[in-house]
Specification:
Layout (H helix, E strand, L loop, with lengths): L2 E8 L4 E4 L7 E4 L2 H16 L11 H6 L10 E6 L2
Antiparallel strand pairs: 1-2, 1-4, 2-3
């Protein structure tokens, strides 16, 4: 099962989540856990029926990438998509 990095940011009004490996797939939740749950569901729906899944780069890639915006992110984690 592929694991995609999910980034959750506090927008002061809610929590916004996205995956840098899957452009255009986003979710918003009232809590961090709500955003993660909605993002996991959004990823599953977004990737359903896709012949070739995007290659997840992994957490280490983004944590070691100097161009990645560090410091602006409240949470960065991986979710497994089945």
């Amino acid at each position: 099962m592929p694991k995609y990095v999910v980034i959750v940011e506090n927008t002061k009004l809610n929590f916004a989540a996205h995956s840098p490996d899957v452009p255009g797939c986003t979710a918003i939740g009232n809590t961090v856990q709500d955003a993660i749950n909605k993002m996991t569901t959004a990823l599953k729906k977004h990737l359903k029926g896709v012949e070739t899944l995007p290659d997840p780069k992994g957490l280490n890639f983004y944590m070691n990438d100097d161009s990645f915006k560090k410091g602006s992110t409240d949470y960065i984690l991986q979710v497994e998509i089945d």
